[in-house]
Amino acid sequence: MSTRLRIFPDLVQNPIDPRLYGSFIEHLGRAVYTGLYEPGHPTADPQGFRRDVIDLVRELNVPIVRYPGGNFVSAYDWEDGVGPRAQRPRRLDYAWGVTETNQFGTNEFMDWCKAANTAPMMAFNLGTRGLDDARRLVEYCNAPAGTKFGDLRKAHGYAAPHAVRTWCLGNEMDGPWQTGRKTADEYGRLANETANALRQFDPTLELIACGSSGPAMPAFAEWERVVLEHCYGQVDALSIHLYVCEAGYKSLADYLACPVVMENQMRDVLAACDFVKAKHRHKKTMMLSFDEWNVWDMARFGAKCERWAEAPPQLEQLYTFADALVVGGLLLALLRQSGRVRYACLAQLVNVIAPIMTAPGGGAWRQTIFHPFAQASRHGRGALLFTYLSGAPCTDTPAHGPSPDLEAVATRDGDHITIFILHRGQTAPADFTLGIEGAARWRVFEHQVLAAPDPRTTNGPGQTDGVAPRSMPTARFSAGNSLALALPPLSWHVLRLTPETTT
Ligand code: AHR
Q: What CATH number has the domain spanning 3-10+384-499?
C-alpha cells in the first residue's frame, strides 16, 4: 500500500517564526573556549573568534543564540566577564565543576553574534541573584551612554547599546541541580516582579519565563500552572526543555519514534498555558520557547572531568545516523507546533552536545545531526502548509504504541515549497505518493536524501563522505499533479518545489 501526502499550496496553517531554528551556547566544556573562541588558532580573527566555526554556524543559519547558560547562568556574575581581560577574575563554576576564566563574556558574545549573523537571547541569573541584577545587566546591555551602566559599557569599549531584545528569566528553576532552585510560587513571583521591573525600563523586551525542566519532573504541568498564575500577564513565552537518547529505550524502533514525546510535551504545556489564560481571562496567548532540545545521552556523555579544570571536554557526544533521524523527527514536531512555538534552541551549538565539533588548534567538522537541522533551518521558513497524510504503515513500539513509519511536513516561502519526509521504517522501501492540490503545476528542482548503511554510522574529524545529504535525480509530477517515490528504509528527505513555467 502506498503512503499518500496531499499538499495544499495555498492553505497556510501558520507563519513560522525564523527563531524556531535558534541554538544555544553555554559556558560549559569547550563550547566557548576552543569552540567559539581560540586566540592563536590558525583561523582566529583579531578578536580570537574561530572563523572556521563561524562559517559552519552561518551554514546552519541560526537566527538566535541563547547565552550564557544553562545551569552555568544560575551562579554567574556577569561583571566578571566584562572590562579589561587582564583584570577579569578566575571563578569556580559550581554547575559544571570547572574553572571559568572569564576571558569571553557579554561584549565578546555580542561581537561574535554579529560575526556569525545571529542575534543574542540572553539569560539572567535568577539563582544566586535576582531582580536587581537583572535590571543592572539589562541596563548594561541596552541603556544609552550617560547613565551609570551605559557609561560602564562605554568605558569597556562599547558606546552604542547592544539592543538585546530577548531575555530568559533564569534557567530550569525547578531542577534540584540548579544553583538557587526555587519552588513554583517563589519563582513565579520572582519572574513576575523581575519582568514588571524590566518592562518599566523597556516595555518592548521579549521575556521568557522558566517552564519545568522536562516531562519527567514530578511537578510537570503543575509547575507551569503555578508559575503562570503569577506571571502570565508579564511574559511573552514559557520555556520548555527536552533531551532524548537511544539508551533511554529498549529498541531502535522505540528510539526512532520518540519525537512523539516532544509533541505530547508541547501539547501538555500548552494546555497548562491555556488553562491559566482561560481562568484569568487573559487576552494574550502564551507562546513556547523550546530553548533546549536535542539528543543527549547524559550517562555516557556527562560532565565528568578533572575537578576545576579549565574548559575540559564535557558532554562531547558523538552522534550517529539514528540520532540524525531523531533530530529530523524532532524538527518535524517543532514545525507542526510552530503556530505556538516562537523560539527553539538546538542545545547546543559547538562541542557540547553539538552539531559542530572542533579540535583545539585543528579543524572543525559537522556531526550527523548538523544536516537535518541545517536543511530545516535553510528551507523550513515562511509558513507551515496544510497537508494530509494517509496510508502510512505503522510499527507497534513498546514505548509509544503504534507509530507511523512515515511523517511529512510541508512549508512554503514565497514561490518555494519544501517537503520534509522522514522514513523510519527499518526493513523495506516505502511507496510514497505526493499529490499537489489545485490547478497550478509544480516541479521538483531539488531532492536531497540523508541515508547511511548502518544506523550507528558517525561522522569524524575531516570526514566528508560519512553521513551527509546526497542529491537524488528529481522526479516529475504527472498530469494529475502527483509523483511517486520509493523511499529507502531509514531515510530523511528534503524535496524543494517551484512553480512550473510554461516556457
Ligand atoms: O544543555 C546542558 C544543560 O542541560 C543545561 O545547562 C541545562 O539547562 C540543562 O539541564
A: 2.60.40.1180
